[in-house]
Give the backbone structure.
Amino acid sequence: MTAEGLRYGLRVSVFAARCDPRWTTPAGLALAGPRCFGYEVDYLPFGSSAS
């Protein structure tokens, strides 16, 4: 199933892994960060907590 098929109430499994450090640079985030896909959130590294 792709993300387009998701809907409220479905059970999902989430897998997270660290990425290559180049993706976390300003250039990498501009190319493929959350805001590039229309999400109004900042990048949060895997294993970090938003406090």
